Amino acid sequence: MKGKVIVSSFLTNLFSFGRASAVTVFPFIFVRNKVMSKDEHLINHERIHLVQALELLVLPFYLLYCVEFLIRFVYYRNVEDAYLNISFEREAYAQQSDLYYLRTRKIWNFRRYY
């Protein structure tokens, strides 16, 4: 899944509450600036999220993402630690440098990162 990359500092800030360099809102990837749109690892990270969202039929992905974030936030009591420990993020960060990962990724592979 490629996803349309849109350069928009405003929308990236809006959808990430000002915290991210890029954010995926199916089927789009929003990035802060043009330089970030050329960052292969960043775009690969976001494409992994597109595949995660698609395999969970989009809306359930975002619901699970939010629920897991809240659970992790209660556990860690820290926004960044909660975010970094969401299973979807753990998979995306672990595999973002493997630009061929999505070609061999098994369905629902994020479950391995719980």
Give the structural class: mainly alpha
Strand order of the largest sheet: 1-3-2
* 3D shape: globular
Number of helices: 7
Element-level helix/strand string: EHEEHHHHHH
Overall mean pLDDT: 97
Largest sheet: 3 strands, mixed
Oligomeric state of the chains present here = single chain
Properties at a glance:
114 residues; 11% strand; globular; 3-stranded mixed β-sheet; mainly alpha; single chain; 3 strands
Write the topology of this structure.
Elements: E1 4-7, H1 9-16, E2 22-25, E3 28-31, H2 34-37, H3 40-55, H4 59-76, H5 79-84, H6 87-95, H7 101-104
Parallel strand pairs: 1-3
Antiparallel strand pairs: 2-3
Helix pairs in contact: 3-4, 3-6
Question: What do these coordinates show?
Answer:
The chain has 114 residues and is mainly alpha-helical. 57% of the residues lie in helices and 11% in strands. The protein has seven helices and three strands. A three-stranded mixed beta sheet has the order 1-3-2. A hairpin with a 2-residue loop joins β2 and β3 (28-31). α3 (40-55) packs across α4 and α3 crosses α6. It is globular and about 35 Å long.
Brief overview:
It contains seven helices and three strands, in the order E-H-E-E-H-H-H-H-H-H. The protein is mainly alpha-helical and 114 residues long.
